Amino acid sequence: MSALPDTLAIVVVRDGALPAGADETVAEAGGAALLTGTGTARAAKELSAARTTWTVESDVVAPGSLAATLAPLLGEVRVVLLPASPDGRDLAPRLAFTTGRPLHAGAVQCGTDTADLSRVDDRVQVRVRFTGPVVVTLTPGVRGVGTPLPPPEPVPLDAAPGTARDAELVEVRPPEPETVELTEARRILGGGAGLVRPGEDGTAAMRTLTEVAAWLGASAGATRVVTDAGWAGHDRQIGTTGVVVDPDLYVAFGISGATQHTGGLGRPEHVVSINTDPHCPMTAMADLGIIADAPAVLAELDRRRRDD
Amino acid sequence: MTEVDAVVVGAGPAGSAAALELARAGRSVLLLERGPFPGSKNVYGGVVYARVLDEVLPEWWREVPVQRWVTRRSTMMLTGHQALTVDFRTEDWGSAPYNGMTTFRADFDSWLAGKAVDAGARLVTSTVATDVLRENGRIVGVRTDRPDGDIRAKVVIAADGVNAFLAKQAGLLPGTDPEHQTLGVKETLALPRATIDERFGLSGDQGADFEILGCTGDIAGGGFLYTNRDTVSVGVVLSLTDLAKSGRRPEDVLADLKAHPAIAPYLRGAELKEYSAHLIPEGGYRSMPPLSTPGMLVTGDAAAMCLAAGIWLEGVNFAIGSGLAAGRTAAEAVATGGGLDGYRKRLKSSFVLADHERLQRAPELVLSDRVQQQYPKLLCDFAQGVFTVGNPAPKPRLGKLFRDTAARHGVRLRQLAADAWTGLRTFG
Amino acid sequence: MRIAVALSRSWQRVEVDPLTGALGTAHRGETPAEHAALEHALRLAELTGGSVHVLAAGPPETEEGLRDALAAGADRATRVDLDTPLNSLAHNGSAARSLAAALPETDLVLCGDRSADGGTGATPAFLAAHLDAAQALGVVHLELDGDRVVAHRRLDGGAREVLRLPSPAVVSVEGGLRLRRAPLPAVLAAREAEIAVVPGTPPDTAADVVSTRPRTPRPRAYPPPSGDTAHRRVLELTGALVDRTPPTVVGPLEPAAAADELLAYLRRQGYRS
Ligand SMILES: Cc1cc2nc3c(=O)[nH]c(=O)nc-3n(C[C@H](O)[C@H](O)[C@H](O)COP(=O)(O)OP(=O)(O)OC[C@H]3O[C@@H](n4cnc5c(N)ncnc54)[C@H](O)[C@@H]3O)c2cc1C
Ligand SMILES: Cc1cc2nc3c(=O)[nH]c(=O)nc-3n(C[C@H](O)[C@H](O)[C@H](O)COP(=O)(O)OP(=O)(O)OC[C@H]3O[C@@H](n4cnc5c(N)ncnc54)[C@H](O)[C@@H]3O)c2cc1C
Ligand SMILES: Nc1ncnc2c1ncn2[C@@H]1O[C@H](COP(=O)(O)O)[C@@H](O)[C@H]1O
Fold first, then answer.
1. Distance CA C4, CA C107 (A)
2. SS3 for A39?
3. Which among A159, B66, C21, C30 would be 20 to 30 A from A150, CA to CA?
4. Mind telling me how many Å the CA of A141 is from chain C's nearest CA?
């Protein structure tokens, strides 16, 4: 059994399925991956950025006991990296607490002694330096992965199952029809905070967006700001803590383009951003940036839909 | 039901000043604000002439949240391609007691409301007054949009701003009169502090205040350009009736001003931070509603106390002045059980109504076609004539040049003299 | 059921200077997620005949948010006196330590999924670790099954994990559930209500922050081109083989012109005939 390296990616796997950002995190860790959860051996075959893979299979995916199981193995590992996917965000603080390390959550880049953290809804980037051991989570979608590597043969690790108080799993429900519709949509119109004027009813705006989307053969999605405000269902939220989509066409209405949002966007062939701010990240990554008032443009499109 | 001596609706400058006076007089007072905090919803240009604060707090300038102190005031007259500027600056305004300041409303309104709260007023935010409560023809309180939200008060002070919703509910105003309202639109643009200092010729916490005439095309109105610490505010104030007639959008008028060769260099490379629009009562003295009805006083913009006539935009000082008067009147009425009639007299003896009375012809004059259209063109062309060196032709005689220019613009000298006289009587 | 709700520091919204990355707190706003947490707590307390205790770790201004919570129906409020400066955005977990120490015995701690001042949602998990409690993060639906709380939590790709919670448990919820409106008398009463203040535990080590600046996206790595000759690979890399319009930014445009621009683009790219 080989010793664990200085920098290690820990990826939580469910039923052999890798979470969002798994390969990116492994690539960021230089190819060293430890898979834990259920179906780790199967998942190991799906990795495309690993040079060495270890596995720690467990009965259930529960953050308290996983942290207790993994903590004793990490003595030599200085930088522990996890993807900021739902299970990664769940486990990382517990690992940090159990191993007495600081947590640097929501990194967009992680080196051997510095990390760039995205803060304040992705509007600032804070660089921290560390000398001792740390736990870092990496936001999915920020770096991409280069040449795929053939998956190495995974090395199972012996670990005594740890225990901690965890919630009892009732079931895992498959995505709802709306979510599936969104994940499979080839064209998506996305609504963000800029689509709703202060004080106005966002639910109505999102309804109009859905109708205009249908007219254009597309589905409607939204940012976290919109779903948090209750203007659209949680199934409509695109992003690293929402639905991960992969359309050909994405039209963003009043969306700033935070990494947590674009991290769930796949690689659309065509991106249009309608925003009043010509410098926001969404417009910067768009093929066509239209500087205009998004609510007014939507109203205009809705008028044309009715006339059509 | 909640019972208090006085309820003040609206925590703008007028409402906070009224609540402050009531609290200082030892009265129980509720200050209602519909926004999440005072100033959160308030739009204005950016300059406050705050000497009225002497009545609120000695040496207020030590703690008021200020962006810059105005040490430079310019009045610009524009035509499509010309600009004539009267530019005044003085170091005197850069130290106590100061003259004007640029400040953000979120900061300023919160600060002033804080003074009222410190004095004992109770501020309730995110709460909208939805109606007045009546009993035997008298106003005895307000209804709010909260559950169990009726408030009974000996005096209601309506300080809810230009829409004057409460005054309308009380039947003091027939309805909105677009003739007497203008629309203000404004953009806040970000520039590095050093760039602002350099372009406007400022240093330290000095600020500039430009009022602009002739920049609104066929629409009666005016423009302004103010400096904050690291943003500038640029905006136009437009007659609602003219705007409707012209079919133009207010953003376009503002875009034209920003693109004017005399303005554009100040704004080059600036990044848009915020766009906002708001109505302003424009009518002045002549369009003021009755200021009180049994049980209720109207103050600030709700009572059209704003002085807004093209190049003036003074509302905050008048709002504070009238709010203080309303608060004092209400406190007295509560103490003596008397009526509210003293309010108008109090206002008259202060700058609030005195200024308005004296300036009552100003809106009409400043918004007249001549001042809006003809005079800027006349003056700019005249200045161009004076400053153009036409060699080998000899320099023109100034008197003749002026008469010729006036004739070319169809300005009759008699009318000009009459306007000058009105102007003198109004402002002199 | 004894329920605690953690409300973050003064419900403040952080402003970022687009030029320098400097932070300010000019605008106050509300966090839908924490409002939702409070509303969930009030409902669960009504259903189970329990009580709601709101806590916040922060400077005195934080009490404003606690008073709003009392007005909405919370029974008790505690402020943990802790003044972490804004620029300590880098570290995580210090609020959790202080909150855990101040928490009374509870069955359920409800948090927002992330705090208003730009947090990462790690606090609830740290809280669970401190309390040796079970956790459910990113919850979009909460219900009562007998006397147990059942939480539906987001997983990857839109799947949901349904968890039955033991006591104690820490739950972080996303927004979407609107907080009830407080009656006016309650708002007034809450202003005078007593708020317990307990000392906090300042973090023992601060993160070593090298720089703070506005965000700039990082270049992404893509798989290398697959062409069989060097020439084709270069063409692929430069995108010369794909019929692609270069990125353009147009405007500012009027709504009608903007709609024309969008529809024309969709037509050019073959999405509309
Ligand atoms: C742990 C964590 C997980 C997260 N997960 C997700 C996630 O899964 N999905 C997600 O979306 N977010 C997620 N977020 C939130 C994310 O960081 C951003 O806050 C969010 O994506 C921003 O949404 P927005 O673009 O709608 O709003 P904002 O960032 O507020 O942007 C609004 C945009 O609208 C523009 N605008 C304003 N007015 C107008 C107008 N009149 N016309 C046109 N444009 C206008 C503005 O210029 C701005 O660009 C997460 C955050 C954290 C901390
Ligand atoms: C574009 C523009 C530029 C201006 N520039 C300047 C300038 O440079 N200098 C200057 O001195 N003045 C300027 N003014 C005028 C100035 O803004 C007003 O005169 C001043 O704000 C009036 O104060 P107020 O307290 O009467 O009303 P407001 O400031 O309007 O305050 C009213 C308050 O009441 C609240 N409210 C309203 N209805 C209700 C309700 N039903 N229940 C509860 N609360 C309610 C509102 O939220 C608000 O906080 C400008 C105005 C505009 C539009
Ligand atoms: N200082 C604090 N005081 C009370 N609760 C907090 C504090 N910081 C974070 N929380 C809670 O933890 C949640 C997630 O915060 P964060 O980890 O900062 O994103 C918030 O929504 C709050 O419920």
1. 8
2. coil
3. A159
4. 8
Q: A-chain residues within 8 Å CB-CB of C260?
A: none
**Distance, CA of B142 to CA of B33 (rounded, Å):** 13
Is the CB of residue B127 less than 8 Å from the CB of residue C164? no
Contacts of residue B254, Cβ cutoff 8 Å, sequence gap at least 6:
B185, B186, B187, B234, B235, B236
C140-182 per-position pLDDT tens digit: 999 999 989 999 998 887 889 999 999 999 999 998 888 999 9
* Spatial distance between the Cα atoms of B49 and B318, rounded to a whole number of angstroms: 9
CA distances from B63 to B103, B125, C146 (A): 12, 23, 57
Q: Mark which residues 114-133 of A lie under 8 Å from C by CB.
A: 114, 116-130
Tell me which residue has its CA closest to atom 38 in ligand 2: B160
pTM equals 0.82
Q: Which residues contact A43 (CB under 8 A, 6 or more apart)?
A: A11, A13, A16, A17, A18, A35, A37
Contact between C171 and C150 under an 8 Å Cβ cutoff? The reply is no
Structural domain including A26 reads 7-156
Q: Give the number of the atom of ligand 1 that is nearest the alpha carbon of residue A240.
A: 8
User: Residue C94: closest CA among chain A residues belongs to which residue?
Assistant: A102
Pairing of strands C148-154, C134-145: antiparallel
Answer yes or no: are the C-beta atoms of C147 and C48 closer than 8 Å: yes
What's the mean pLDDT when you consider all of chain B? 87
| Nearest ligand to the CA atom of B100 | 2
Q: For residue range C63-87, list pLDDT tens digits in order.
A: 888 999 999 999 999 999 987 665 4
Region of C210 (left: φ > 0; alpha: ψ -120 to 50; beta: rest) is: alpha
Based on the structure, what is the number of domains in chain C? Answer: 2
> Is A42 part of any domain?
yes
pLDDT at residue B384, rounded to an integer: 87
How many whole angstroms separate alpha carbon A162 and alpha carbon A63?
11
CB contact at 8 A, B365 and B422: yes
Which position has the higher pLDDT, B363 or B387? B387
Phi-psi region of A237 (alpha: psi -120 to 50; beta: other; left: phi over 0): beta
Do A108 and A207 lie in one domain? The reply is no
Same domain, C52 and C157: yes
Helix, strand, or coil (residue A101): coil
Residue C17 lies in a domain: yes
Strand C248-250 relative to strand B296-298, pairing = unpaired
Pairwise CA distance, residues B297 & B288, whole Å: 13
Average pLDDT estimate for A101-115: 93
Interface residue of C11, C19, C187 to substitute, partner B, most B CBs within 10 Å: C187
- Strand segments, DSSP code E, in C73-159 are 76-81, 108-112, 134-145, 148-154
Cβ atoms of residues C10 and C65 within 8 Å: yes
- Measure the CA–CA gap between A185 and A197, rounded to whole angstroms: 27
pLDDT value at residue B216? 86
DSSP-H helix ranges across chain A: 22-28, 40-44, 63-70, 86-99, 177-184, 202-215, 224-228, 259-262, 281-284, 294-307
Q: Which domain holds residue C254?
A: 232-268
Same domain, C260 and C130: no
User: Is the domain of A275 the same as that of A215?
Assistant: yes
pLDDT of residue C89: 59
d(CA A202, CA A83): 32
In this prediction, residue C11 has a pLDDT band, given cuts at 50, 70 and 90, of very low
Distance CA B288, CA B283 (A): 7
Q: Is A28 on the interface with C (CB under 8 A)?
A: no
C193 and C244 housed in the same domain: no
CATH superfamily of B4-67+103-176+283-349: FAD/NAD(P)-binding domain (3.50.50.60)
